[in-house]
Amino acid sequence: MTEQNNRPISLRGTLKAIGPGILYAGAAIGASHLVFSTRAGADYSFQLIWVIILINLFKYPFFEYAYRYTAATGTSILHGYKKLGRWAILTFFIFSFFTAIVNFAAVTKVTADLASYIFGLNLSNFVSSAALLSLILLILFFGKYATIDKIMKIMIVTLAVFTVTAFFFALQRGQQIQEGFIPPEIWNGAGITFLLAIMGWMPTPIDASVWPSLWIEERIKQTHYTPSLKEFKVDFHIGYIGSAFIALFFLGLGAFVMYGSGDHFSPGGIKFSEQLISLYSTSIGKWSHGIISTIVLITMFSTALTVIDGYPRSLKGSMLLIFPSFEKSGEKIYTFWTLFLAVSAVVILVFFTKDMKSLLEFATILSFLTAPFFAYINFRTVTSSFFPEEFVPKLWLRVLSWAGLLFLASFSLVYIYVIWIK
To answer: What is the CATH number of the domain that holds 159?
Structure first.
């Protein structure tokens, strides 16, 4: 791998590398951006811009390490977890199992509610979620990675163009703050809960850093080309930095269109979907309602597609490392986890929740509370003695990692104190 990574970066190699980072962006620019960034602007204007910037900065090393490990070793970062010790890969598997169940349900709920609103359907949670999941499973089982890769590249570019356009229309319109408006408090139980919800899924849960590492393996099979670390990082930065900027544009949309207007996002999925789409169409013009509806739906659909592929893929990969005797059943295990999580999501949506806001906050807070562990094992993996010395992160990246760990752990303790103890 050393000789390969000494190879000069090339346009051809970079183009062959691009793919996993776009899929990552597709997973990121979903509920965390459409829902939480927009709500942050709508409720608090630009007061929470520091949260979005800091959480993207402090999570940066831990996502980069997944790329770094694969570039250095040719295997996914899950193999690094196993080298750390059975405790690491086993704990990752257990935590991922629980976060996968909740996040599957949350993403399915948002996407199904958007589809119900856009198509004017009055369906039960069971029918809407089952129909959505059935369509996604058909794509995953028959189209596989190559189909997802093509869909995401088209969707992310389209979404980025429309989001930036809508923001500048909203900027020109300016804020419409009602007389007597009282800004909501941030530093109370509700405000801190919302802060942690943003941090949990912004840009995505840290356990999702494993997904690009696994998608890289699929991309290499697809292109028959193994990129260098520099080529890998171009793909990573397109996805990571691009999704961070899009989050700021979503916050701006919420701040300019809804903040101080007297309107608040509804916790109900259908009503929330209507309000969300209205943000765009109000900014650009009523003529754009149909186009915006399509773009928003496809955005959440692509997020659901990547999430519903990513979790089974990482559960399969970790399970095979824990139980090597299952190696010959790899595809069957992927199918099992996909179906199991899909059924679990439907059960949760039918029997345990009808409140999208509560479900999303629970999912994101669970992701945030487990984030310090996932961040720590990613850091340990690329700084351990078994990792090739020439690929060990530079000092500034290691310092940023410790700052990120401190940030994530500190806010987790704040949440536990404010919500559970105080």
So the answer is: 1.20.1740.10
Whether the predicted pLDDT of 7 surpasses 70: no
| CB contact at 8 A, 258 and 279 | yes
| 3-state helix/strand/coil string of the chain | CHHHHCCCCCHHHHHHHCCHHHHHHHHHCCHHHHHHHHHHHHHHCCCCHHHHHHHHHHHHHHHHHHHHHHHHHCCCHHHHHHHHCHHHHHHHHHHHHHHHHHHHHHHHHHHHHHHHHHCCCCCCHHHHHHHHHHHHHHHHHHHHHHHHHHHHHHHHHHHHHHHHHHHHHHHHHCCCCCCCCCCCCCCCHHHHHHHHHHHHHCCCCHHHHHHHHHHHHHHHHHHCCCCCHHHHHHHHHHHHHHHHHHHHHHHHHHHHHCCCCCCCCCCCHHHHHHHHHHHHHHHHCHHHHHHHHHHHHHHHHHHHHHHHHHHHHHHHHHHHHHCHHHHHHHHHHHHHHHHHHHHHHHHHHHHCCCCHHHHHHHHHHHHHHHHHHHHHHHHHHHHCCCCCHHHCCCHHHHHHHHHHHHHHHHHHHHHHHHHHHC
- What is the pLDDT, as a whole number, of residue 267? 65
pTM, whole model, 2 decimals? 0.85
Please state which of the ranges 30-39, 183-192, 263-272 shows the lowest mean pLDDT.
Answer: 263-272
- pLDDT for 98: 84
CA distance 281 to 169: 10
Given a contact cutoff of 8 angstroms between Cβ atoms, the answer to whether 71 and 218 are in contact is: no
**pLDDT(126) > 90:** no
* Residue 4 belongs to some domain of the structure: no
Is 210 inside any structural domain? yes
- Give the count of domains, the chain: 1
Res 77: pLDDT: 94
Domain extent for 230: 9-378
* Residue 200 to residues 168, 204, 365, Cα–Cα distance (Å): 28, 7, 6
Each residue of 235-290: pLDDT tens digit? 999 989 988 999 999 898 888 888 877 666 666 666 777 777 777 777 667 777 77
Query: Is 38 within a domain?
Result: yes
Report pLDDT for 268: 62
Query: Who wins on pLDDT, 60 or 99?
Result: 60
pLDDT surpasses 70 at 52: yes
193 domain residue, yes or no: yes
